[in-house]
Amino acid sequence: MTILNLGSLNWDRIYRLPHLPMAGETISSQETLVGLGGKGLNQSVALTRAGGHVRHVGAISAQDGAMRAALDGFGLDHSHVVGVDGVETGTALILIDAQAENCIVLDPGANRHIPEGAFRATLAQCRAGDWFLAQNETNLLAEGMAAARAAGLKIAFVPAPFDAVSAVPLLPLVDLLSLNAVEFDQLCAALGGAEHLPKTLALLITRGAEGAEYLEGGRRITQPAFRVEPVDTTGAGDTFMGYFLALRDGGAGVEEALRHASAAAALQVTRLGAAGAIPSLAEVRTFLESRS
Questions:
Q1: What architecture does CATH give domain 2-9+37-89+110-291?
Q2: What integer is the mean pLDDT of 125-131?
């Protein structure tokens, strides 16, 4: 099956610091890295490395040949990524402290200028039963979900950065909602309680070092986190979601998909960076064998 990802693409500039700066404070970086990120791209890389078949629809600056070369290096098909004139490729400034906690500032750039025609042309190549995946970092969310649902695709949504005003109206269209514990609490507060979530909605909730849980139809499946020494937690949730969705799309059960996703996220946080730190399926399997 195919996973159509309407996803963001960013250049990440990462600074490792002894601590996150206070207002007015200037700090020298201990290490600096420029790499690829964006929740959409991170998830596409994770999906691909987990064995999924991905069509990534997005937008970058028309002049950004370096991004296309970098996508080639990841082995990603960027034929559905549109070059847009007059805007820059999206960027993220990521600050990481000694405990691997981060704070991030986003400039969406071209991610908010994906042409609807490019999306619909790619959607036309999909079939009923395929997945449509989206995050809250691009335009065309409502239009994309409605069109994908009309075409018979299943809908997976990662409503981050979380915004209740845009996320809540989309919930009736969603089959699988993936969020972290803080976002889940924000969503429940916006709805007036978890009991107001659509009954047909499957939930994937990541809780960092406390693991993850999957909720669907009254059943609850938990997955403990693997204990590792984190270096950078940026992109861990994206890695988890990408692996989980790819394995489920490939026919794996929920427990197997959760275990592989947890292992992938554990490996990813031991490395600096976002998309470039996502492990291969072979690495994940070796890790799981070592922890069995």
A1: 3-Layer(aba) Sandwich (3.40)
A2: 97
